[in-house]
Structure formats: C-alpha cells, structure tokens
Amino acid sequence: CGILVLIFYPTAWHGxxxxxxxxxxxxTVAAVRAILELPGLSFALAEVVDQDWVAQxxxxxxxxxxxxxxxxxxxxxxxxxxxxxNIRLTPGVAFGTGDHPTTKLCLRYLASQxxxxxxxxxxxxGSGVLAIGKTPAV
Length: 138
Hints:
Layout: E1 2-9, E2 13-20, H1 25-36, E3 42-48, H2 53-60, E4 64-67, E5 70-74, E6 85-89, H3 101-112, H4 129-133
Parallel strand pairs: 5-6
Antiparallel strand pairs: 1-2, 1-3, 4-5
C-alpha cells in the first residue's frame, strides 16, 4: 500500500506525490511550501491499494489493427492475423507503442504509400515502430 498525495496551488498548478504509507507526508508538504515559497499550497491524501501493476498494464494492451495487414501486437499476445505484418512490442507508457493517435496516423499513411526502394528514418523514437511498420514482410 501507499499514499497518493494530491498537491494543489490556487490558480497555478497541481501535482502528485506518491510515497510509502510510513512516510511523513505533512513534513514533505511543509518542505515543499518552504522551498517553493508557496504559502497557499494545500494537499489531500488518498490511500493506494497494492495491486499487481504489471498484470493491470498488460490487460489494457491488446492487438490493434492499424491498417489492412498491419497490426501492433503486445509481446504476450497472439496475433489476430498471423499472416499479417505483426509488429511485436512491449507496450508501456512511452511513445512507440502504436497506441497514440499520431503514431496510428503515421503508420496508416506509410501503409498507403508505395515506398519501395526508399529509406525510412524514424527519428527520435523509443521503439522504431514507424520504420518497422514500413518494413516489407519477409
């Protein structure tokens, strides 16, 4: 178990601090108030029940069809269409999982283009899913 601390500051911002149950939250918030010189800083506490976080994340990712014959498949899932180009990834919270709308849009565009003989540069990526998505099936 843990404590989720929701920190609020009027008209400016709010943040989240997660800490162990035994943590002295009041002292931490007091220190943040002093360091940031924010006298109006307030907070609320909420207990976070311990869970199997890995299983929870895995259950939220399923194979996704991006275009005809192109799927993003979590590494622990079986492809929906084994004959298709199935990009096997370990999804997480970063870009490159194929889950973000801009990634899907780019993959759909690439799938619709005849880029035979062209080089693909997937610049600044985590997984390289755009370049992989344009790789001809072997």
